[in-house]
Design a protein that fits this description.
alpha+beta; Beta-Lactamase; eight-stranded mixed β-sheet; 8 strands
Length: 231
């Protein structure tokens, strides 16, 4: 279902009150997350409205061959349709103080596909534009770039599904521009709302092997509660 690193951050965020309310940045103790820090990042909105990395883990920077801290999202990733989808989704998630999980696959330098899981969760931070930052983690993948060869612009992702994570507000397709909404439809990328309680329960009980998909509900039924049709 989800990799341990994604579940670890999700469970920790939930332990801070995430899902019921948005945790404060000052309660985030990265010492509790040392095992996944090389794969973590912090994304915020700049005064000019661009998305910018405040922090990026050492293995993420090694994989791309450049430092990411201080760089904008659109600088790090090439201007592709799927990258533009995520840029807008992250911007809306920051405004809504909501979480986002994207799944699918990706390539670096057109090499073998890697499974893609990227989780981003909101924290309140008065220093940030709009008062919210996204703290995220990437599913670990094999990194072979110790010489720090520049691979910017060579990241090619193929999104499969996007999950909005109640925090308690969610991102809905109606909050996206017509262009991005159309791209999601054209590319067959479905947006659903994660059943957060069920995912935490599965992780706690170690029942990942019984679930091929992330438990979720349709965005249309979310307002009726998570008793809708689950994956």
């Amino acid at each position: 279902m989800l990799c341990p690193e994604v579940c670890q951050l999700l469970s920790y965020w939930r332990s801070l009150g995430g899902g019921v309310s948005v945790p404060e940045r000052n309660v985030l103790d990265l010492r509790r997350l040392t095992s996944i820090m090389p794969w973590m990042f912090i994304l915020e909105m700049s005064p000019d409205g661009s998305l910018r990395y405040r922090l990026a883990g050492s293995l993420l920077e090694e994989a791309l061959g450049r430092g990411m801290a201080g760089q904008t999202y659109c600088t790090v990733f090439s201007e592709t349709e799927q990258a533009s989808i995520m840029e807008e989704l992250y911007a809306v998630a920051l405004v809504q103080s909501s979480g986002i999980l994207r799944t699918g696959s990706f390539k670096l330098q057109a090499k073998a596909n890697f499974d893609l899981e990227v989780l981003s969760l909101p924290f309140l931070d008065p220093r940030a534009m709009g008062g919210t930052i996204l703290v995220g983690v990437v599913r670990p993948f094999e990194v072979q770039n110790r010489s720090f060869v520049d691979k910017w612009g060579e990241f090619e992702q193929r999104l499969k599904r996007i999950y909005t994570i109640p925090a308690p507000r969610i991102v809905t397709s109606s909050q996206l521009s017509g262009r991005v909404h159309g791209l999601l439809n054209d590319l067959g990328i479905e947006m659903r709302a994660m059943d957060l309680d069920k995912v935490i329960e599965i992780d706690y009980k170690g029942l990942h092997h019984k679930y091929e998909e992330v438990p979720s509900v349709s965005l249309e039924t979310f307002d009726q509660g998570v008793d809708g049709v689950l994956n």
